[in-house]
Amino acid sequence: MFRKQLKLTKQEEKVICDICIFTVILYVRTWFRASLASCAPRLDFQLLKDIENCKIQNSIISAIALKKLLSHLWYLSPVLAAFAFFYDDVSHDTKRKMVQAMQVSGDDHPVKRAIVDPAMIRSKDLNDFVSSTT
Length: 134
Description:
The protein is mainly α.
């Protein structure tokens, strides 16, 4: 809309376009649904997976977005992951696995936000963030 008011190089225009595409394709859907606490664990986890899958199309923006999101995973902490039990889009199978995961010993002092190794995102599931602390 304000493109003519700024003098941008072709590279700057491309980067802004890439950021807009990333925002529209991945982030907006999650942002609009984020007001429901019950869906926050699943949405955060799905956004992680989507960003990981997006690396093929734009590795730079994906890497930056992933780094930022990895420091904001409060809803994947063992305590708050329990919200996923109340979200209809989480399958019954996943909820069963979450209940089974509650048998696994948790920390006496659980972390306030989940710590996820980026290399392990594809192999994880929502139940991996649940423990007896949940």
